Amino acid sequence: MCQLLAMNANTPTDIIFSFAGFRKRGGLTDCHSDGFGIAFFEDNAVRLLQDTTACATSPFADIVNQCPIRSTNIVAHIRKATQGQVSLANTHPFCREMWGQYWIFAHNGNLKDFTPQTGQYFRPVGTTDSETAFCYLLEQLRQRFDSKPDHATLFAALTEICHNIRQYGLLNCVISNGDILFVHCGSLLHYIIRQAPFGVASLADDDISINFALDTTPQDKVAVIATLPLTHNERWQQFAIGEMAMFQNGAIIERQTPENPVYPDKEMGLNMARQAV
Fold it and tell me: Does the annotation mark 185 as catalytic?
C-alpha cells in the first residue's frame, strides 16, 4: 500500500516535520521502497523531486531538510509498485498543465482493467494505472470545460469522475492546482488541521517533537493529509470510504460524505489494499 502526504495552508509553510516521519515509511518503518516524489507549488510554478530508490535513504529526500521550501500546497508520495516497473516515468506525483495551471496528482491503490480510450489532450508517459487515471481525470475535465470553472462546479465534476474511476478498484488520491487541494478516500486516509492555539506534536515514526507555537502566528492554518496519522499525540480525523473533500487556505471548504459512512481501522484498510492487488 503506497503512502500519501499532502499539505494545504493559508501561508507558505515548510513540510520538514511531517516529511521527516513520512519518509521513514519508505523502507524503514514500512516496506515501501520503490521510489518517492514530492511536489511544491511556488506561485505559478512547481518544484518536483523524484527518485526511484527508497525514500528513507534517498539523497533527494535529504534535500527537503537541507533546503526548507515553503509552499501553500505540497503533495508527496511513497511508492510500492503494483503496476508498471520501478522507473522515474512511473514515479508519483504526476504533473500536467491544464487551463494555464499546473496540476499535481498522487494515487494510492490499484485499478484493475482500467483502460480508457486514448485522450485528445492528456496521455500517460509511463505504464501505471495511476498516471492513466490522472490523464483520464484531466481529459474528462478538459472535455467538459474550456476554462477553469468555479470551485463548486469543479468539485462536483471531480467527485463524479473519481467515483467512476473507483469502480475499477482502490482509489485514494490527492489532486492540487496550487490553489485548492482535492482529496478522495478509497480506504485509509486521515487529516489534521493545525491552528491556534498551537502545541507540541510528536512523530509516530521517529523520535522527533516540535512546538508549533514557536514558529507560527495566530492567523496560521495548516491542513495535513496522510494515509495514516503521522503523530501520536494529536487528534487526527479520518475520511470515510468514498468521501471527497476540497481544501483551501488550510480548511475544508466543501466535502461529500457517503450517506452511511464507513471508517475502516488500519487492519481493515490494509486488507482492502491487499485484495486490490
Answer: no
